[in-house]
Design a protein that fits this description.
Blueprint lengths: L1 H5 L1 H18 L10 H5 L14 E6 L2 H13 L4 E6 L6 H15 L3 E7 H7 L4 H7 L4 E6 L18 E4 L3 E5 L17 E2 L2 E6 L10 H12 L4 E3 L10 H20 L9 H4 L1 E2 L2 E6 L10 H11 L4 E5 L7 H13 L2 E7 L7 H16 L3 E5 L4 E2 L3 E4 L3 E5 L5 H6 L3 E6 L1 H15 L2 E6 L2 E3 L11 H13 L8
Parallel strand pairs: 2-3, 3-4, 7-15, 12-13, 13-14
Antiparallel strand pairs: 1-8, 1-10, 2-5, 4-9, 5-6, 6-8, 11-18, 12-16, 14-19, 16-17, 17-18, 19-20
Helix pairs in contact: 4-5, 5-9, 7-9, 11-12, 13-16
């Protein structure tokens, strides 16, 4: 009894920590399964079309192309611009985009921006740059699941979607967040490869309605929900000196952009820049903040298992449970050639995911996939699949437990032989800088590839972290 009295503070602290962990983890235990009702709505034949549809596609494979097409597309806006992003941060490319948005707002274009609440809390809170944008009458910013530390059980509900819609003309969707790490070629401490697709709507033909409206409807559902709250949408902020200064800076930046990049402000022909598709279809996870049915993973699995020749999967990292391993194993047994490319632990920038991969590498190999580890020098962040020669899938979904059961996620299925040829070629270029995994300890390494091995202390840290994180891996 005396011992308990002396240790009451420690017991209290441990009790609080246990309660917090239970609150953070509880909404995601156990793993949900896809209901019969949801499964019944998914028909793989619906992802292909017999004739050319209204959507044309363009691959945005480089950070520079991502910057250029954002400037080009935003410049053409006449009525509205929609932006949804997991993460928006201060930076040169961000300022370029915001300068474009400010100019368009002053022309009367309505602009709606949605940002994940935790990312906004971390990187946007009280920043005059973002207040300068949100204070504009024609611009509104809303946050998905705004941070409230008193409701700690909601903190893991994240919005991982990334897309831009301009009028009814076109949209960009993929895995890039909105800052220099992913967009443009400005000098930055870190940089990552990523991938997006631009979809151009040629008009609502008899063959079908553009997928642009699927993305727009998804946005409106979230935008109008109680999950989203306003961020500094107050014109009185413009009276603050630092905010007014940011407005003037963005105006000057817009003029400089036009002067330095006249080709991006000239008329363009997206018909020439894009390739045709038969059909484009959006796949999405449920949008609530708590544990989700794995709709995206389930749908991708159904499409992959029907492949006749090949499946190529590119994902930054892989973190699976037994259900996901089982599904990947079934696909490997049915499909002649299944390849997966991930970052090597030495090349990737996600310490936690790398730690888990080292701990579960043998289980990944047991699925039968031909596994490749990317060692190209820069971390790889793209999420995409190729199925046979006519289906390409690009979006925000990582092959991990967080993307499967926790976050909102989007993947775009493009039924197009021309686009699939382009994507397959781009994937192949990256895989030239991969080592093929033979077993947990053995690789086939291309002669030109120089592996930058991590120091012993980091390998030890990965091992320790991999062990300690096992009870919490559903949030990785």
């Amino acid at each position: 009894m005396k011992l308990l009295k002396r240790r009451w503070k420690l017991i209290l602290v441990l009790g609080i920590i246990a309660a917090l962990l239970a609150g953070v983890m509880g909404p995601f235990i156990p793993y949900k399964t896809v209901s019969e009702k949801a499964a019944a709505k998914i028909h793989t034949e619906d992802f292909r079309g017999e004739k050319e549809g209204p959507d044309r596609a363009m691959l945005l494979e480089t950070n520079v192309s991502a910057w250029e097409e954002r400037i080009r597309l935003i410049n053409q806006a006449k009525e509205r611009i929609i932006i949804s992003t997991f993460d928006m941060r201060e930076g040169e490319s961000t300022r370029d985009i915001l300068a474009m948005l400010l100019a368009k707002a002053q022309e009367g274009v309505r602009i709606e921006i949605m940002v994940d609440g935790m990312s906004a809390f971390t990187h946007m809170k009280s920043e005059p740059l973002f207040q300068a944008i949100s204070a504009q009458p024609e611009i509104e910013i809303r946050l998905y699941n705004e941070v409230n530390v008193l409701q700690f059980w909601k903190l893991n509900g994240r919005m991982h979607d990334k897309y831009i819609i301009v009028d009814n003309m076109a949209y960009i969707l993929g895995g890039r967040n909105m800052f220099d790490y992913f967009i443009g070629d400005y000098k930055t401490k870190n940089r990552s490869y990523d991938r997006e697709v631009l979809i151009y709507n040629t008009g609502d033909k008899e063959e079908g309605i553009s997928s642009l409206y699927q993305v727009e409807d998804y946005f409106k559902k979230l935008w109008d929900s109680e999950l989203c709250t306003s961020y500094y949408n107050d014109t009185e902020l413009l009276e603050k000196q630092e905010v007014a200064g940011e407005v003037d800076s963005l105006k000057e930046r817009y003029e400089a952009l036009k002067e330095k990049n006249p080709q991006l402000f000239a008329d363009c022909d997206y018909d020439e820049m894009t390739v045709p598709s038969n059909k484009v279809t959006l796949i999405s996870n449920p949008t609530g903040v708590y544990g989700k049915e794995p709709i995206v993973f389930y749908t991708l699995s159904r499409l992959m298992e029907e492949a006749e020749q090949r499946v190529i999967i590119h994902t930054p990292y892989i973190v699976c449970n037994s259900y996901m391993y089982e599904e990947l194993g079934k696909i490997s047994q049915k499909v002649p050639d299944v390849e997966m490319m991930i970052n090597s632990v030495d090349n990737g920038d996600n310490f936690v995911a790398s730690s888990d991969y080292r701990f579960h590498k043998d289980e990944v190999l047991d699925t039968g996939v031909n596994l490749y580890e990317y060692d190209g020098g820069l971390s790889y962040h793209g999420k995409s699949l190729v199925i046979d020669d006519d289906l390409s899938i690009v979006g925000s979904y990582n092959m991990d437990l967080r993307s499967t059961y926790v976050d909102t996620e989007l993947m775009l299925v493009v039924n197009s032989k021309e686009f699939t040829t382009q994507l397959t070629k781009a994937m192949g270029e990256l895989q030239k800088d991969c080592r093929e995994v033979v077993d947990t300890d053995t690789y086939k390494v291309p002669k030109h590839l120089k592996i930058k091995e991590a120091p012993p202390w980091k390998k030890a840290a990965w091992t320790v972290c991999g062990i300690l994180l096992q009870p919490f891996r559903r949030l990785i």
